[in-house]
Amino acid sequence: MSLTTGFIAGCIWGDDSSLKLEVVDLSRAAEGIIYRSARFGHIELPEGMSLAESIYLDRHKPYWDLRATIIRQERRNVATGALIDPYDE
Description:
Blueprint: E1 5-12, E2 15-25, E3 35-37, H1 51-54, E4 55-60, E5 65-70
Antiparallel strand pairs: 1-2, 2-3, 4-5
């Protein structure tokens, strides 16, 4: 199966403490055109896991759209359940 979607992970300038995920559109790669987007928003990948371990791709009927299951890292306040912004710590 040939996929037209790829993924890259890297740090944002000024924040090298964690890896963030971006999507790469490879549908026009043969023409020398590659698009990059953050269509999933800011996703922090888990420490100690590779990019390949963090993403699972599959297709579902009836249209066989490509779907991704992404393992992400979150930090939350146990008492309130509130999401803690890593830049606020």
